[in-house]
Amino acid sequence: MSEMVENESVAEPLKETKPVECEEKTKPQEEEFPLPDWVAPWAREAPKIVVRAPGPKSKEIIKIDRDYVSYAYDRCFTFTIDRASGSAVMDADGNVLLDFSSGIAVQNAGWTHYKVTKAIQDQAAKLIHSMANDAYFDKEAHFAKLLSDISPNKALKGTFFGNSGAEAVEAAFKLSRYHTKRSEHVAFFGSYHGRVGAGLALSSKLKLRYSYGPMSPGIVFTPFAYCYRCSFKQSYPECGMWCMDYLENQVLTMGGTTNQIASIFVEPIQGEGGYVVPPKEFLPRLKKICDAQGALLVMDEVQTGFARTGKMFACEHFNTVPDILVLGKALGGGVPLGAIIAKHDIMRKWRPGSHSSTFGGNAITMAAGLAHVQAIIEENLVDRAAKLGDYAMKLLKEMQVRREIIGDVRGRGLMIGVELVKNQYTKEPHEATNIQGKCWRAGLMTITAGFYGNVFRIAPPLCISKAQLEKGFEIFEQALKDEEEFLKLGTSSPPG
Ligand SMILES: Cc1ncc(COP(=O)(O)O)c(C=O)c1O
């Protein structure tokens, strides 16, 4: 009896195997993480190069621009952007590029998201300027409430809206002084907080500061936890966070301050500094130092905010709630907008007239920003960034094994830095410009960061599809391979 059953059970699957296989082969494979439905048809075909850039239309525009627009912008592509949708942009000549930059971490929900477009159109038909200085406006109130609701641990309440990231940094700088009645600040090597006023003074890079001194006095700089290039030549975790000891026991006691620290400004993951992720102890320790000093911890999440890192805010990866959170870029969904949100007692210190801006809480920026942040929530982009980010990280780590030019891969969510080196042992930086150009010619728009200009930012719109991500990495790896062949890097070996 048991034999019969056994025989039957062996025979059955054999009979069924074939039709099942056929069905599986013919069944269209449903793509995991597809592009959302609203993305324009042309953008689904990215990349598509139709003419060598710059094409004739682009050339015309660039010619006028070079005559009439300031040279201050350091543009890395001879590219004239005409339209964009989802995770693709089109130039004036019809070339379609796949985008790994999100317009520097601005278009988190995707370029030209239909909800943002509609919100702007509807609002513009009704009211453009909301006179935030003198009147109340519904969307400003609702947006401030939403930001409080999604703030880390829901611990922040009280928003001030301005027009850019740098202006938001300025507001945080002023509020921390106003609250503490102190005038000294700590910032980090590799930091970037903007190009004007306090933001510039808090930014460390020489190129940004050159010829603009003297800056606001009372700012001291200290090394960030950039473990791949540790300022103290230590290794984590054996170092026990030497950089934090240095800040606590040397900078704050012998670094020339007068014990009047109003605030410490930090990016939870450094952006322009090279997508540098500090160890998990870094931010909690910083908060402790602030509390011991009676100083405020200001977290600049202009680049890391709004689902980019797989959490709504990057500080959540480190279980650290700042006293003031600085927002910009993705906050506006593509329109100029910055804001700070603070602990209630801190924000409440500002009395009417303590700070202001003509266009703060502007009707169009509020409508656009509110729609963008709502889309990020409704479309669960935190989760998508976390999952696609894990997948991207896996692919890049595998690529690192194949490509000696990659020294380090690090990041959270879809904010990943790929640091290039001439030699993995000496870690001599390899400048990224050639590779960036190659990617661009092949239809992938990538931007770089880092003190040496050798870190690629993998920061696509969070609506990018898995297939597009893979396509982008194919182009990226080919460009790295070409560069390696050019440099004959295949033979790098330990020094000596
Ligand atoms: C972390 C950070 N803070 C502040 C800023 C300045 O923002 P904005 O260019 O909008 O003034 C930036 C811009 O890149 C940034 O990355």
Please tag this protein with its features.
single chain, 496 residues, alpha/beta, Aspartate Aminotransferase, domain 1, Aspartate Aminotransferase, domain 2, 2 domains, seven-stranded mixed sheet, four-stranded mixed sheet, 16 helices, 15 strands, globular, disordered N terminus, disordered C terminus, binds pyridoxal-5'-phosphate
Structural account:
Residues 1-25 and 491-496 have low confidence and may be disordered. This protein is an alpha/beta fold and 496 residues long. The longest helix is centred in the N-terminal third of the chain and has 25 residues, at 2-26. It is built from 16 helices and 15 strands. The strands form three sheets. A seven-stranded mixed β-sheet has the order 4-10-9-8-7-5-6, sandwiched between helices. It has helices at residues 2-26, 41-44, 56-68, 102-105, 114-126, 138-150, 165-180, 197-201, 206-209, 242-254, 282-293, 344-347, 363-378, 381-402, 433-441, 466-487, and strands at residues 81-85, 88-91, 96-99, 159-162, 184-188, 219-222, 261-266, 296-300, 324-327, 338-342, 406-412, 415-420, 444-445, 447-449, 455-458. Helix 5 packs antiparallel against helix 13, helix 6 (138-150) runs parallel beside helix 13 (363-378) and helix 15 packs across helix 16. Helices cover 39% and strands 14% of the residues. The structure holds pyridoxal-5'-phosphate (PLP). Residues 104, 164-166, 169, 192-194, 199, 267, 271-272, 300, 302-303, 328, 338 line the site of pyridoxal-5'-phosphate.
